[in-house]
Amino acid sequence: MNxxxxxxxxxxxxxxxxxxxxxxxxxxxxxxxxSLSVSRDLLxxxxxxxxxxxxxARYTAALMFGAAVGGILLGSLGDRIGRARAMGLxxxxxxxxxxxxxxxxxxxxxxxxxxxxxxxxxxxxxxxxALVAECWPDxxxxxxxxxxxxxxxxxxxxxxxxxxxxxxxxADWRWLFKLAALPAVIGLLVLFFLPExxxxxxxxxxQIGRPPATPLRELLRPPLLRVTLIGIMLGSVPLIGAWAASxxxxxWADKIGGAAQTDYKAMTQGWWAFGAILGSLAGAQIASYLGxxxxxxxxxxxxxxxxxxxxxxxxxxxxxxxxIVFLQGFVATLFFGWLPLYLPExxxxxxxxxxxxxxxxxxxxxxxxxxxxxxxxxxxxDGSYPAVGAxxxxxxxxxxIVIWWAPDTTRNSLNK
Length: 416
Prior knowledge:
This protein is mostly helical. It has one domain (7-199, 214-405): Growth Hormone, Chain: A (Up-down Bundle). 77% of the residues lie in helices and 0% in strands. It has 18 helices and no strands. Helix 16 packs antiparallel against helix 17. The protein is globular, with a radius of gyration of 20 Å.
């Protein structure tokens, strides 16, 4: 048994990881909110609604590619130099490069920066989740896993509220990117002052005298290859669903409702994020109550139904739009409370951050491809947001099938 941290140190770890993921969510929600305004400004008279949607897909894909690479590289770094230090470096990555977005002159410059922001966005998640999971006792893990999932969506909600106070327009959007640089202060504090995982320290001690093995190589060969592939598939479904399907509601709301109310897109993101916070908090609890497999299956069913309803049964400015957006946010983000509980259970301590990072972030390669595919569909569907959102929502059907090949980890302990 590893020596536990003091309660004060445990709370410090939880607060730091929550803050890291909160601003992770801020970065994730930034371009869905600002994309059309950025494109209108940088493209000038060349801007068209279809071209704006196309650039939204490119920005999202660049972030997802960066997050996939960052999740693998910085997740692996967490198994080598420690979860806390790797998390601090990840925060610095997404903060600094997001801040530089305030000075871009072209779409291509912003596209490159979104990839670099993605490196940090992807690196935070596996290190924060592994650190918290290893620093808190098993009985507390459903609660802290829910908080980890809720943190990202709390950041998205925070962004939506800020954008309602100060509008993001084609004439005034650069302030938002300057604001996104502020979490660098948290990154420095984490890097130099946050305590490390006792489980990781003990694992490093056990590895002394053994031939060095790269975590990535170990995960991609038996006996861990099968669980790694399953983890990737389970992590991919909710990410593709979120970014290739449901995130199209924000530019859709901007296009339809923006003319009548400039902050309508921010209100839409706020309703979704409020539901998402509650869903993320509940996801781990539902997984503990119903079991890992049954809960994932039911979440997939509900996400498919509500995403189709959001794009086919309502529309921006209709009275039913915000309630359905809220419900879709709640159900589709139950996954993001489920994943922080389940993924660390799949892997042994010495490869846990890498394994969790691969599972969660390799899915972002598929997500990037899915977003680009959705962008192509957007053009093919003549700029129809409902059509592309509904078509992309079918990915949740894959989750309904894949989960039955996943191992049941309900009784796995992370503190042995």
